[in-house]
Every structure is written in C-alpha cells, then in structure tokens.
Amino acid sequence: MRSERGTIQRLSADFSTRETICTGIRFSCALAFNRAGDLFASEQEGATWLPNGNPLDELLHIERGKHYGFPPRHPKHLPDVIDAPAVIEYGPQHQSTVGMVFNEGVNGGPFFGPAHWEGDAIMCGESRGKIWRTKLAKTPLGYVAQNHLIACFGLLVVDACITPQGDLLVACHSGPPDWGTGPAGVGRIFKISYQRRDVAQPVTAWASAPDEFRVAFDRPLDPAEWSTAKSKVRIEAGRFVSAGDRYETVRPGYQVVRDQMATPRRWVDLLGLSLSNDLRTLVLRVPRQTEPVGYAITLPVPETWRGQGGLPQKPEMDLAVMLNGLQAELAAEKQRVVLPHPSLAVSRELTRGSSEHTAFLEAAAAPAAALTLRGSVDASNPFVPAVQPGSKLDWDTTKDAFSNAIFAVRRDDGQRVELEKEAAAGRLQPLSPVTLQTTELAANGLYLSHDKLRHVLSPQRVFVPWASEICEAAKSSDPARPRDDVKGHWLTGRRLFFGEAGCAACHTIRGEGLAFGPDLSNLIHRDRDSVLHDLLQPSATINPDQSGSLITLKDGTSMSGIIVAAAAGQAITLALPGGVHLDIEREKIVSMEPLKTSLMPADFGQKLSAIQREDLLTFLLVSPLDPTVITRLEPPAPAPRSRAELAASLPAPPTAEARAQWPPLRILLSAGDKDHGVDEHDYPVWLQRWSKLLALADGVTLTTCMGFPTAAQLAAADVTVFYSRNQGWNADAAALLDTYQKRGGGLVYLHFAIEGGKDVQPLAERAGLAFSFSAFRHGAMDLVFAEPSHPITRGFSKLSFIDESYWKLHGDPQRLAVLATSEEDKEPRPQLWTLERDGGRVFGCIPGHYLWTFDDPLYRLLVLRGVCWAARQDDVERLSELATVGARIAP
To answer: Span 20-39, mean pLDDT?
Structure first.
C-alpha cells in the first residue's frame, strides 16, 4: 500500500512535494473536475491476463484515501482493503474508455448539444468507436450515473474536447484495436456541430410496463412525421446488446468479445406505436419483456429533421433500455411512472426534459404526498469488484463472508426496507412495497448498508417489478399462454365489442370489425394495466397513424375524423367511425386542425360497469384458440372461408333474452388415440381444442374422456360427442347406449367414430350408419343438402370440402333423415343424417378426416347445431357463436 504505482498523485504548485490521493488505479487515461469541483477519472478495464483484473471500463469519482480495485481485496495480500465501486461501468467488456471531458463551455462559452446535455461527462470508447454522454447526479453517499450513446465512429476514438464555439472536437486513430497502428497510423480529427436546434432530441428511454417501452423527447413531435414509423423501428434484445452495436466496424480481438457476439440475441416485435397526449413521449408496444438484459431501440429520423452538409449520417437514432427503475405511484393523484432512482432529486436530474417525469415529480413534491415504490434490488456486495469471465482465483470466494454479504436496503432515516421474499433465489431481491413521504426521498431515497459500510443505490441496481431472472422471452410471445390478470367472461366481452360497446365500429381485432382506429389484435401481448389505462384515458397516447383532425365548414358545422386523402386543390376524404368516408370540397372548408385528443370518447370506459370492463378486457387480452398449424402438403389445405361467405350463413348473435332462456347444457367429449398420418384423425388435438372452444359457452358443463365413456360419464351428460376409431365398442357399450338413449341422451358421431369393427350392426342400430370395410375416398367433396329447412342445415344448399367421404356403410338409410349427400360411384351417398331412437337423438357427420376441417367455420356451425339438436335444445344456435373462434378465415 506504500507503493506509488497505481495511484493518483497531487503535486504542489512548485513540484516540490506530492501526495497520494488514492490507490488501486489500473490505467486512468483522463482526469477532469466537474462544475462542483469533484474529480473524475476514466479507467480502462483490467488486464485480460489477470484473473482478478476489473473486467469492465469505469468512470471513477476520485476521493481521498480510497482504493479503486486494482488489485482488489485479497484475504492474504490485501485483507483490509475496501474496493470503492465505480460510479458507472461501460459494457460489455472491452470498450476501452480513454478520453473524457465535461460538457461545459470554455470560459463561459456555449456547451455542446441541447440544454439537458449540459454538464454531462463526454466519454470516448476507443476500441469500438463509441462516444457516450454520461449524466451524473450527486447524493450524500456519492454520485450515480446514467449512460446514453451519442456517436459511433469507424475509427478508434481517443479523446474529445469542447471548442470555444460549443462544438465537440474528436481525435481518432486508425488501425485495429486496442492500440491501432501506432506512430505509423493516420490520425483524424472530427468536429461535430450541433445543428437544427429546432428539432426534438430524445431525453431518456425506459421500460414503462411489461409490454411497453417509452422514449421521451424535449419537445412535441409532429404525428404526421411518425405515422409510418412503426415499420422502421427495430428492437434487439440480449445479454450483451447495446445501442449502436451495428456500427462497430472495429472490435477488440479477444475471445471474450467473440463470446459476446456469439451469445444469443433476439428481435422484439413492435406491436404498436403511439404518442402521448402532449406529443412529447413515443410509446412502443411490445410483447411482454421480463428478462433484465439490454434492449437496443432503433428509431427512424424523420426527413424534416435531417441536416445539410457535413458527412452523410444514417437517418436513424439508437437508444439503450434496461429493465432498471422503480415503479412509483401517487395513489391520491392516481399517477404512476417508472423512476430511474428512489431519490426524487436524482430522478429529476436523470429525467431532465421528460414531461411525463416532470409532471409526476411536481405532484410528488407536494408536502402531503405519499409515494409508493415497487421493484427489485440487486443487494449483493457493491464493494467486491467483478472478475474476468471464466477466471479462477487463488482463493475460494464462496467461503468468504464479506464477499458474499447481502446488503440491507435502508431509507434515509436508517429504517430497513423488508424484502418481499427473504429467501428469493438469484441476484434480484423483490422489495416489499415502500411507502414514504416524499420529503424522505430528497437525499439518497434508499441506500445499501452492511455493518458500518453504506453505499449509494445506483440506478443499475434497481429493477422494475416485472423483471425476472427466469427468461420468459419464448413463452411471453405466446398469445395462447394462460393469463391470471383477467377474470371476465370471454364470450360476453366479445358480444360487448361487437355489440353494445360499439368497439367494432372503429376497430378490428383478429380480422373482424371496421378499420377506422388502430387494429387491436396485438393487445394479447400487452398487460392488463396498460390496456385498462387506454380504456379509461384514451387520450393519454395517440397513434400517429390514427391522429384525428377537426374540420370546420363555412356553414358553421364541424366534424372530427381521420383525413385519408387530401389531393392539392381538390376535395379531401374524411374517414368517420362505422366505415363511412366523406368527401368534402376544399372550398367549403374554413379550417383543418389536428386534434390533441383521441377520437375515442373520453368517457368510454366510465360508461361500462366494472363487470363489463372485466369481460371486455378478457376478450381483448385473451386469444383462446388460434387456427391449427397445418404441416402436410398433400393434399393441400383448402382456402379459408371468406367473410362474405360466412355472412350469408352465420346467424346473428343471440339476444340477452334468448340467452336467459337457455337451460344448463352438459357435454361429454369422447376421443381416442391418433391412428392416421400427419394432420389426419388427430383425436387428441381435437379433444384439446374443442375443450377450449366449448368452455367459452354460456351455461355449458364440459367433461372429457379417452376411450368409450363409463356409465357414470354418460349419466352426467345431455349429449356425447364421439371422435375416435371407437375403441371399446362392444356389446357392453351397446347396453350403455341403450340406457343412455332411453332417458333422452343425445349422440353425435364424427367421421371414424362410426367404426363398428366386428360389432358393426349393433352400432348401426344405435348410430344410424356404421363403418366396417366400407368404401372411402380422400379429396374434394361437395355436400348437397337435402333438408335446407332442418334446424341443423338451415340456410345451406351446397358446401365444398377437402376431406374423406364414406359410403357402402352398414345400416338402413330409410330409417334416417338424410340431411346431406355427396356423389360417390355416381350416386348420392349419405354424409350427414339424424336419427331419433328410444327417446334419444343422433346426429351423424362423415366429414372430419383432416384437422383443417375442424377449423372450417361452416363445418363447425353444422356440428355445433348438431350438438344442440341432439341435446334437445330449443335454440339450436346456442353454440353458433363459437363457429368463428380460432377458425380458418380469409383476411
């Protein structure tokens, strides 16, 4: 510790004396004082050949008497050393932070960039050609920082300074990293001038909800400039992902860097883009993101923002987002936002220029305001430096109590904040909700402590409540995943959407509705709170593609809508709810003004009861069934049914009065083991899918079985639907059906369920027709309906399928009411029929060979009607609403 190596020395003015200010410095390339008179140093990462070398580049706040981790504490060689943590680390490994300057004007002159950049540290990352803007905020326990990328170079960035004119002068070196080509290399100096001060600048970006990122700008955005931006936005995620990675034309040649680039990365779908009510914040809707990794957002730069002259620039801007921050709520004001830090003073500095945070922090500053913070904390020992990846030390850190200490989280008054799960595994420790008077949050807010050690809680150690160390990327994008955040009735919510609530007059969802406002199909990826917020406060965010206009005419009338066509000097076309388009001659128009509010009624959500809101949310957020994925190529799947074809056949939804008359309906589904090839006779898939489908219906109790039902299962059913090869059929099963039919039980047989085997005649007696070594054919088949007035086939005259037909079946067709036939061997052969026997009803349906047939909405309609008819329901349309749910329908 008495050596002057790895120290920062203070020399007297006459160079006669010197003083060691601090130790543990590995390679500091720049020293600079900020406006508060505090000294900072850039610190390059530790040597790759030393296992205990600090592996990340750092920004250090230099304080007298501290040790900065190189070499770090060692139980034998440096047992009493406490390694001071960096203010912020620059990752991933091997950025080579070298030159640094504080963004302050020369001799009182202008600084570089917009107002919210003033005073930030400008840091050069030599090895990958990057320049960052590091914003600093001071607490009583030390500085915290937040990093932003501002430039990328194809050269090695060595140093930078602010010119007297307020430009940023950057010195670069040629050649590969780390040290270029030495004295023989060609150096270059670039001057970066900040032009177009009228153009908006991004202030900060953050994860505002599990399914939402936000980017705040320092002034309002023009919705027209962002109306087509959605297709140009890209979001990449991964452990080593950061903003501007694609510009790295040079990278250090270390194995760890190659390992970083080989670590999996993924693209995050952008489901929607909108603007906040004040047009200052861009809202990006994404599938649920819970993995605490790096998210790199690339936004397009509008054409009107681009400057003239100088070197050509990519028309894009890059921002980095992590799941850092604490969710803060002011219950009295019903305001919620994600703050980067528990200290209000720090959050104010780190979000300077964000209107959303400014409004929240002003409300939080009220004397009686109570703030609740939620999230997780990395409470591991901040005084233990990281080590080189994969390295082995000469001592066992797992047996060292200090190295493995978990710090307590405390408030400024010293009171300990409890963890929600004391034994939570992993780095992130969920905090119990912390409610504080905002006056308590003016200093550190929260901090880490252990014995006599106290340390500031950095923004990089706090995480939003939904952050999870268990990767949910794959399952989060699955729209069919079970949800526990909605408890309503899906089918009732669907009726609301297409009926009483009137949503379908303006919105499409899953291919249905009218395209006036945004398509809502992607809401299944969003969380409940954000969708509910949109229902209750529709003007909070405005989709620039659907931003409205107020048109005032010379006769004094006015109307609001979306201008969809406006040719110069000609009429404009105004889109209105309900699919109406109105042409208005320009000479009749006094003014056209952009609306600052949504076209959706402000009181829409309040007009719904709490139960209705829950039902509607359930419909919006849950896709209970999607069309089956078909993999077979021969024969090819038929084209999906068109909406026009369905409109001619599907009945109107049942009225509330009709639904009130429905008695309880007990349905038993009987399936068996798969017995054919790909996408054929897949009884288990049918059982799974139709269980989900029928469970949506009102007043239905559903049970299932594999194999032939037991007596108890039949006794508990009003109607039984068979789809299998009818394994278990024998004389005992026939006796069970006799008892079942005599008490009025209904039977539905689909496709190969009429297989009778050696007991084919007893099955034909009870089912109407039965298969045993009968004729069959795969391919196109046309059903011709013989009974268009029958409740099951009402409205049908002819229907085409690609499926399998049967004929030469066992049984007497004269006993049956044949509903539909197909031509086989030049004769009409029964394919759909009904039979009434001993008080019980039977519906038989031959089509059903391929999985795609069960996703045909018109086939479903026939089967669902058949189920109701066999169950002796007065209303055979009782289940008809389910015909289109998850069905194959042309867009």
So the answer is: 94
